[in-house]
Amino acid sequence: xxxxxxxxxxxxxxxxxxxxxxxxxxxxxxxxxxxxxxxxxxxxxxxxxxxxxxxxxxxxxxxxxxxxxxxxxxxxxxxxxxxxxxxxxxxxxxxxxxxxxxxxxxxxxxxxxxxxxxxxxxxxxxxxxxxxxxxxxxxxxxxxxxxxxxxxxxxxxxxxxxxxxxxxxxxxxxxxxxxxxxxxxxxxxxxxxxxxxxxxxx
Length: 202
Prior knowledge:
By secondary structure, the chain is mainly beta. It has helices at about 50-55, 115, and strands at about 5-15, 20-30, 70-75, 80-85, 90-100, 105-110, 120-125, 130-140, 145-150, 155-165, 170-180, 190, 200. β5 (about 90-100) and β6 (about 105-110) form a beta hairpin.
């Protein structure tokens, strides 16, 4: 982690008293330091099963256990499938792709937010014929993100949530639920924003 630290020294000369005082204070780059982040609203009580499930799994050591106030659920069927994330701090995020039916394992990832933003969304699974989620992020507030292309395999539209990481640094986290073709043929889909910019979605 890069930490920005500088020292700003200012000398004030008091002519009338013929004395001088020197004050040195640290000048900090707030974007380079970790601090907790509050989500716009806590997850509903119906998401407690996700909290309980994650608490019983081996999570990456950097990931704290989520709670309802720290958890954001982007999509769920209420019992078996979900994609949710929780912020470690303003720099890192953990997210879980949950499949509680046993077809594929529930998986938890840890990643720096800055690495997630420019990256092609990574599918949670590439097994032919199974359901999967992909998770990504955009800098700023981005609404109406849509999937274009092979939408026949889209299970649900894009779900997203914008979070203020501090000092107005907005990041929109987004996920979509789709089904891998049973033939194993790669999907041809893109994520597009209202501004007209698109990124490969698979």
